[in-house]
Design brief:
single chain; mainly alpha; 2 strands; 1% strand
Length: 453
């Protein structure tokens, strides 16, 4: 089997060495269609997504060799504020890997994060220099995602499209559950909406974009992913705020006021939520209203269980945490009997913290969460200022669609975490790279206009 695969492996290596962009495109294309090694050959001591993670790892190795041989990389990307925020986060992950309760697990987590960031952010930002190649990167993922949608809908039809209970597994083996599937759909819908109505897009491209948008929207609704629906609504609010040119100061005051209101009246709010007994359901209205049911909805209660474990773990090790990637191995001791649900496991081996923020808090302490928030804050700041600065309609629209797509994930991150997978890392780091690349290009263009000589 290995011998038969050698010609294919050699061909890939040649493409990696002589044409980085082709491999990045392949990664974007295969990400929605990738499957885990355990699905194909169960029993291995490790797991990975095929074929994307071998491609990413191979590209990382060749990239490092080329950087050393050519003695450098694009300094503007390396020194960009977003890149600096990423360095701070990776440094803290490295330090907490050294103090980890499970160093091997933490170092694996660190290496996985490094190869995702190096390829999907740094190399991809280089690919997007001067605002080029962005649409191609988006469409490659979307085309494969449409294939997954048709596959999912076909399987869903066998049980009945309105059967919510099967939504969690009909997207297998491509997406492990409906939440990651819904998150990916939410991230790409803003682009298709933009392509469908943008003035710089040709009529044929608009028609294709509208068809693709409708397909993604059907998949989005039938994913029954409440967190994705909520995140898409929140992103819509951000879109309105940006388009209406709402000033930052009153917006910030409003945000702080809402947090203060929740803190002051949290008991009354929780009492109100406890009166909601709606269960997640195939009926869309009931399914939406069940979002706030923290009394009997098993999915919501299990999230609260995981979050409670993460907070108790943080209280035990507030500075360095238990180590990156260790939550799933350590939260058993922090699971209280009164918090367990019908979907909790006896050994508490059911997965992660269901939060991109509480996960790092428990695994890498307070700075683990704050350094991740630093990345998000820097990206949002860069995107908003780049959007305001740009005159080019195409780039301006792309930056806005990119930011809105990322906002869906930032909000979704309160309820789930998927950055350890290629499915969401490709858009998360790729969209971040788009913002950085366009920011650098727009600054260079302004500088060139000021100094024409």
């Amino acid at each position: 089997m290995v011998i038969n695969a050698l010609p294919f492996i050699l061909a890939i290596l040649l493409v990696v060495i002589f044409s980085f962009d082709k491999i990045i495109y392949l990664i974007a294309l295969f990400a929605p269609l990738s499957v885990t090694l355990s699905e194909i050959m169960p029993g291995f001591g490790f797991d990975m997504y095929l074929p994307t993670e071998p491609l990413i790892l191979g590209l990382l190795i060749v990239f490092i060799l080329k950087v050393f041989s050519e003695r450098g990389f694009d300094k503007q990307i390396l020194t960009h504020p977003v890149s600096l925020a990423i360095y701070v986060n990776l440094t803290w992950i490295f330090l907490t890997s050294l103090t980890s309760t499970m160093p091997v697990v933490s170092l694996k987590f660190l290496f996985s994060r490094i190869w995702f960031v190096a390829v999907l952010y740094f190399l991809t930002a280089k690919l997007f220099s001067e605002g080029k190649n962005i649409e191609k990167y988006i469409w490659l993922y979307v085309i494969s995602l449409i294939i997954v949608i048709f596959y999912t809908l076909y399987h869903h039809l066998g049980y009945g499209l309105w059967n919510k209970e099967v939504a969690n597994f009909v997207c297998n083996p491509f997406y492990k559950d409906h939440t990651s599937y819904g998150a990916a759909l939410a991230m790409y819908l803003p682009f298709l909406m933009m392509f469908s109505f943008a003035g710089f897009v040709s009529r044929k491209e608009k028609i294709f974009s509208v068809v693709a948008m409708l397909i993604l929207f059907v998949g989005f609704v039938l994913s029954y992913t409440r967190a994705a629906w909520l995140s898409f609504f929140a992103a819509g609010v951000v879109f309105a705020v940006i388009k209406l040119n709402v000033r930052f100061k009153p917006l910030f005051i409003t945000f702080i006021s809402l947090i203060a209101f929740f803190i002051l009246f949290q008991n009354q709010i929780l009492m109100s939520l406890e009166q909601n007994s709606e269960q997640s359901s195939a009926d869309l209205k009931t399914h939406i209203s069940s979002m706030s049911n923290i009394t009997s909805d098993a999915s919501n209660l299990e999230r609260i269980n995981r979050w409670s474990c993460a907070i108790r773990m943080f209280e035990d090790k507030p500075v360095f945490g238990f180590g990156p990637g260790t939550y799933m191995f350590k939260y058993a001791l922090y699971q209280l009997n009164e918090n367990r649900t019908i979907i909790s496991t006896n050994s508490a081996d059911g997965g992660n913290a269901h939060s991109e923020y509480l996960g790092p808090l428990s695994e890498s302490g307070v700075l683990g969460m704050l350094t991740f928030l630093l990345i998000i804050g820097t990206v949002i700041y860069t995107a908003v200022h780049t959007y305001m600065r740009l005159k080019d309609k195409r780039l301006k629209s792309i930056v806005l669609a990119t930011l809105i797509g990322l906002i869906t994930y930032y909000v979704h991150g309160f309820l789930n975490n998927f950055l350890d997978t290629d499915k969401l890392s490709v858009p998360f780091w790729g969209f971040t790279a788009m913002i950085v690349a366009i920011d650098i290009y727009s600054r260079n263009k302004i500088q060139a206009q000021k100094n024409p000589d």
